[in-house]
Amino acid sequence: MSTKTTFKAANGKDASGIIREPNGNGKAPGLVLIQEGWGLKMELHLYDADHAFMNETRPDVYNAGCAKTAWDRARSFLKKHLS
Asked: 29 and 42 in contact (C-beta within 8 Å)?
């Protein structure tokens, strides 16, 4: 299920986004979307992992390899665009 939402961005301005919840209680593919609506290119990366794959407190879904890659990509993106 997708729900549109509005939130305060780091600059204090209103921003909008979409929250996507998996259907039912089963496993869902892992997805990390890094997007900035103020002129930056979007990067989309799909991971062969379950929902919450970066959550170390959930060994049933945690995927160390995918989590490391996702964090590395997120840090690289932020460093590139926010330095």
From this structure: no
